[in-house]
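Reviewer 2 asked us to include a model.

Predict the structure of this chain.
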Amino acid sequence: MRVAFLTQQATSADGWGRYSVEVVRHLHALGVMPVLLTAFPDKDPALAALEHHVVLPPAFGGRLAGLRGLRKAPALRRALQGCDVMHCLVERYAPLAALARPADMPCLLTAHGTWAVRPLEHRVSRVLYGWAFRQANPLIVQSRFTLAQMQRHLALPHAEVLSGGIDPARFAAPAELALPGWAQQGQVIFSAGAIKTRKGYHVLLEAFARVAQQLPAAHWVVAGGEGGQAGYAERLRARIATLGLVSRVHLLGQVSEAELLAWYQRADVFALLPANDGSSFEGLGLVYLEAGASGVPSVGALDCGAVDAIREGETGFLVPQNNPQAAAEALLRLLHDPSLRARMGHAARQFAASLTWARLAQALLRRYEAALAP
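Predicted model (structure tokens):
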């Protein structure tokens, strides 16, 4: 079975990219013959041997809803020749994919989060994207929250939720990197993700300030590059200084894989408190599952995709958005109770193991086979 995968890039440079690399890699292991159709030539080493055509416009290189993006349809249609199924892995390409798709070719689309909803908020783009989303059968949505937000704007009869994914083996081996001396004592709260408003770091900072008053040896560690929002990281650093927490809040920036895994394994609690910023929201939050795979419970926020990644009261706690006091109480409850942390960490590991990339790939393969069935 030859499956064409449409994605901006075949590297793990962002959420779309990581999803693309892992889905394609695991489907290839199941016998699927992938054809990569991307906007950029770079390719993850795990996909190096796969057929690859650079035929898409950049996802943010202009309005894909306009003629500039849709003019790529003939080139995309030519690249689809010989394929049995098309799977669009990035919502921004949905109109282009629907326009280029041969009439007899099954089409699937994965909807992740913000860019599955934002085009539906405006009348003109809703017509185009609504038509494109309905061409997908099935429409795979990463979380119940994302699907609910999409369904506020249009009916999606062929939509289903398939969340993914995690690779438990990635988090099973002992960390190979030594951490700073201060990390060997006290409590460590860990966060991972780009430094931008919708990740809610400003909320978590206020929560940590409350935690720090009760736990003098607690530290908060953040791994993630600046998310392209002018001034947000600077304002965050200024507030850290005002609170007198410069020595206890550590913004590491982008970190290596080894360092990321080391911090996951060292953490007592993982925390990320998404704060919806208009139509920008956390579609799922794979980082909660990564923490769970490391045996670490999480504190997350309601009204976003975290509700699919954290089982309230079982693998962690969910608190109202923009509520530092509630977040601090949840963090302190875990930090004060080692047995609760251990119990929730064990449950989180089991839950993460049920949402693997391998399981997702098997589910997708069944959808491809069903779509091709006479």
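The chain has 16 helices and 13 strands. The first helix runs from residue 15 to 29. We have added this to the supplementary material.
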